[in-house]
Amino acid sequence: MNEKEILKRYWGYDSFRPMQDEIITSVLNGRDTLALLPTGGGKSICFQVPAMVKEGICIVISPLVALMKDQVEGLKAKGIQAVAIYAGMGKREIDILLDNCIYGKIKFLYLSPERLLSELVRVRISYMNVNLIAVDEAHCISQWGYDFRPPYLKVSEIRDIHPDVPVLALTATATGFVRNDIIEKLQFKQPNVFVQSFSRKNLSYVVMDDEDKFKKLISITSKVKGSGLVYVRNRRETAEVAAFLSRNGIAADHYHAGVAKEERFKRQEDWKRNRIRIMVATNAFGMGIDKPDVRFVVHLDLPDSLEAYYQEAGRAGRDGLKSYAVLLANKSDQLSLKAKYTDSFPSVEDIKKVYHYLGNYFQLAYGAGEGLTFGFDLADFCKRFKLGVIKSMAALKFLERDGYLTLSENIFLPSRVLFIVGNEDVYRFQIENVGFDGLIKAILRSYGGAFEQYVSISEADIAGKIRASFKDVVKHLNTLQELGLLSYLPQSDQPQLQYLRPRLDFNHMDIDVKYIAQRKQIQTDQVNAVLAYAEKKECRSVQLLAYFDEPGSEKCGICDVCLAEKKLDDADQLEDKIDFEIITLLQGTVLTLDALVPALATGNETERLERIRILLDFGKIKTDGKNFYL
Question: Coil, strand, or helix at residue 329?
Fold first, then answer.
C-alpha cells in the first residue's frame, strides 16, 4: 500500500493535514528531515505512515514514557505490532523484546533516550532491519533548548550503526538556533527542513496583572464557556485551586505525577469526556492528549520559558475555534521567577554534595553501583538530606550530562511475570507443590504468553480468583522466583535512577564548569524572555512569533494588547464623531443643553456631556448660560 492507502486503512483519514504529506515524501525519499509542527499538528503520523510503507522496523526515540506507552497501545489497537523499552525494565525483559524486534514482525520500537546508553540495546539494533529513525521532542538534543536531555546526545550513535537510514526529527518548539543545533547533533546529510508557522490565528493571548488571581480565575471561567485547563507550579497548588473552583460550583479536578496511576487515568478521561470542566495540573499533564475543544488555558504562574508556555497554551483551540491563553502574572511573580533561578542554580560543590548524598541514600559503597537502577523519590531524598528540590533536580541534570547517572520521568510499570522453565517443569512443580497450584493456574489461565515473554499481571485480580490476600499473592510470587520457576517484577510508579558508573569519591569527580556557566546563561535568557513577554505592551502573537524566528508578522488583532489599542482607536473615533455632530447642529442656530444632548446620534449621555464640556473649555463652542452656539 502507498502512504494514502495506509492512512485510510489504519487511521481512517482520507487526506493528510498541512505539511504531513511533504514531510512523509521527504522521508520516503531517504532524506534526513526536521519537521516543526505545532502542538496537535499530527507529528506521529509523519513517522508512523512512512514506516508502514517501508519494509523493516522504525526506531522511535521519545523522552515521554507515558506518550510512548499510549502510542504503542494505539498502534496495537490498529493491528500494528509495536513495543516500548524504557528505564525500570529488567535485563531479561528487554532481551526478549529486542529479540522480537529482530526475528518477529514488530514495526515500531519505542526507546527512551536513556536506553541508548545500554550496550545490549546498541548491539541488538545492529541486527535489526531499520527503515527509519524518528526522534520525537527533538529540541531535547540541544543544550540551547528549553528541556535539554543529555542522553539524547547518544541518538547519533544509531547513525553509526545504520548510516544509510534516514532520520526524522520532530518538535513543536525550536528557535532558529536550536534547529541548527538539532541538525548538527543528529549529523544530518542534506537536511530537509519543514516549519509550519507558529501563528495560531484562533488563539487570543492575554496577560493580566492581578493580585487576586483566584477571583480573576472565576471571572474567566464565567465569561468563557466550555472546557479549560489551568497550569500551576506545584502539586500542592493543583489540589488547592481545584478545591476552590469546586467550592464555587465549577466542576474541576487536579492532576500531577504523584496521583495514583488508575486515578490519573480516570481524571484524564473525565476531563476528555467533559464530565469535569476544568483540569488543574502541573506541566506533567497534557502531552499526547488530543482534546480539540479546550476553550481556555490559564497559567497561574509564570512559565520557565516561552517554549514551554507556547506548547502548554497551544493545547487550547485545536479545533480551530476561538480560544484563550491567559497568563496571570503580577510583580511578585516576576520577582519569584528571577529568584527561583538566581538562588537555585547549583554550584560545583552543590552538585558533588547531591551525588554524595545519593550514594548514602541508596547505601552504595565507593566503587559499586555501575548499571544498577533504583526507584527514586526526589521529595523523600530532599527531605532526608534537607536539600532544595529545584536545586537538587538541576544538580541531577548536570550529573546526567557528565555521564554519572540517568534519571527518567515518573513511570508506571505494572507487575510482570515470565516463566523461566518449560511447561513440563511447571506441571511437575504443581503436582509436587499443591499449595502453589491455584496461583500458577490463575496466572496461566488469565495471562497468555507467559512462557515466551513478560506479561502484565494484577496481584489483586489473582488474589480474588484464588481467594487469598494481596500480601499472600506477592509472597508466593517472590517464593516462586527464589525457587527459579519464574521471574517476578513488582509494579512501580516512580522515576528510575540508574548509575552509569561506579560510585566515586569527590576527588575523582570531574564536573564540567564551563558547561554549568553556559546553562546558567541559557536559563537566564529564557527567564528574561518570559519577563519581557509579560511586561511588553506589544501584540502577544508578534512577540511569540519573533521569538521563534518569524519576524515582521502582522498583529493578531485579538490579544489583550491589540484589543486595548483598538479600544483607544475606537474611543478617539467616537470623540471625533460626537464633536462633528455638535458643531454641525450649532451651525447657524442656537440650542439649549436639553435640546442639544438628545439631538446627538452618537455616544451615551455621559459621553455627549463630556464632549460639550471639552469643546467649551477649548473655545470651540460658546454659551450665554442658557443657549449654546458657535
Answer: coil
Chain centre to alpha carbon of residue 347? 28
pLDDT (0 to 100) of residue 448? 83
Distance (Å, whole) CA 126 – CA 133: 13
CB 167 within 8 Å of CB 33:
yes
Contacts of 338 (CB under 8 A, 6+ apart): 527, 531
Closest listed residue to residue 500, CA positions, set 365, 363, 399, 364: 399
For helices 513-535 and 540-547, what crossing angle results, to 10°? 160
- By CB atoms closer than 10 A (0-12, 13-18, 19+), residue 569 is exposed
Question: Cell 506548547, residue?
Answer: 311
- pTM here is 0.74
Dihedral-angle region of residue 81 (phi above 0 means left; psi in -120 to 50 means alpha; beta otherwise): beta
- Residue 584, classed as helix, strand or coil, is helix
Q: Do the bridges between strand 415-419 and strand 455-457 make them parallel or antiparallel, or are there none, so unpaired?
A: antiparallel
Instruction: Judge whether 210 and 328 are in contact, CB under 8 Å.
Output: yes
How many other CB atoms sit within 10 Å of the CB of residue 273? Answer: 9
Q: Which whole number is the average pLDDT over 463-489?
A: 91
Contact between 397 and 387 under an 8 Å Cβ cutoff? The reply is no
Beta bridge partners of 497: 374, 407
The interaxial angle of helices 423-432 and 437-446, nearest 10 deg, is 150
The pLDDT tens digits of the residues spanning 55-104 come to: 999 999 988 777 888 889 899 999 999 999 887 777 888 888 999 999 98
pLDDT in tens, 101-149: 999 899 999 998 878 778 888 899 999 999 999 999 899 888 776 677 7
